[in-house]
Write a structure and sequence with these properties.
globular; Fumarylacetoacetate hydrolase, domain 2; hydrolase; alpha+beta; Fumarylacetoacetase_C_sf; 2 domains; metal-binding; 6 helices; eleven-stranded mixed sheet; hydrolase activity; 13% helix
Length: 284
């Protein structure tokens, strides 16, 4: 299944069209895209058995984040060995480095992002796992049963702000307005031949800058769910940004930052793509 937020309403995407869930379920499920995760088992059981009406065409610009208001947004640093190396760190061994992105930065898959004046704004394409069932102290073997599905995310990062304090202030620098685009929809795990091995990458104005596979994650999605839930409950609708492969601007020689007018396209195999255009503050 592909679950989307179309003009603020929960929808199922079928054959390039959108089925409004509230209408199709005769009001059993409401229109709020975020609310569906609290009833995930009930919703997916209904959706798999429902005789859905024909979908309606939709404008891609109406797509919002499939998870617009998560209670917790957890993010993992240095989770690909080559990215750890380009960042000047040893790859983590026993525990993943964890930070948060504030939920106010979450946006839909397409749109403009304002570049902070005088900043060094960087890109980080990431697989994002969405929690569908509360997970607390779950085993790695059972972890994927708590995941609703996957979506595409960009962990956009302001590097000057990130390094302005000691230790670095990751959460603040990665949570500016628009710095957490997610979408274009959520794809349930049964849609993938192998949900643990997906190609991901991004390009700036057609120039590929990142390319990797999620099989290269140091800590896989099941491992992350298990390790995170060992400390805190993961709640339905929470997001886990799982880490980025190598190729970010920080690790280049010379370093490279996003510029006014550039378009960043981020994609993951079997899910889809994000498109962000960056504009200077004076144009916003």
């Amino acid at each position: 299944m592909r679950i989307a937020n179309v003009a603020g309403r929960l929808a199922l995407i079928t054959g390039g069209t959108a089925v409004d869930v509230e209408t199709a379920s005769a009001g059993r499920f409401g229109p709020d895209p975020q609310g569906v995760y609290a009833r995930w088992d009930e919703f997916t059981a209904w959706a798999r058995e429902a005789d859905l009406p024909a979908g309606e065409p939709f404008d891609a610009d109406d797509l919002g984040s499939p998870v617009p208001a998560p209670r917790q947004v957890l993010a993992i640093g240095l989770n690909y060995r080559e990215h750890a190396a380009e960042s000047g760190y040893a790859a983590p061994a026993a525990e993943p480095p964890v930070f948060t992105k504030f939920s106010s930065c979450i946006t839909g898959p397409y749109g403009e992002v304002v570049l902070p004046p005088g900043g060094h704004t960087d890109w980080e394409v990431e697989l994002v796992a969405v929690i569908g069932r509360r997970a607390y102290q779950v085993s790695e073997a059972d972890a994927l049963s708590h995941v609703a599905g996957y979506t595409v995310g960009q962990d956009i990062s302001e590097r000057i702000l990130q390094t302005a304090a000691t230790p670095p202030q990751f959460s603040l620098a990665k949570s500016l307005p628009g710095f957490g685009p997610v979408g274009p929809w959520l794809v349930t795990l049964d849609e993938f031949d192998d949900p643990n091995d997906l190609e991901l990458g991004c390009a700036i104005d057609g120039e590929q800058v990142q390319l990797g596979r999620t099989s290269g994650l140091i800590f896989s999605v099941p491992a992350l769910v298990s390790k995170l839930s060992a400390s805190i409950p993961l709640l339905p609708g929470d997001l886990i940004f799982t880490g980025t492969p190598s190729g970010v601007g920080l690790g280049r020689e010379p370093q490279r930052w996003l510029r006014d007018g550039e378009e960043l396209v981020s994609r993951i195999e079997g899910i889809g793509e994000l498109r962000q255009r960056f504009v200077s503050a004076k144009e916003a």
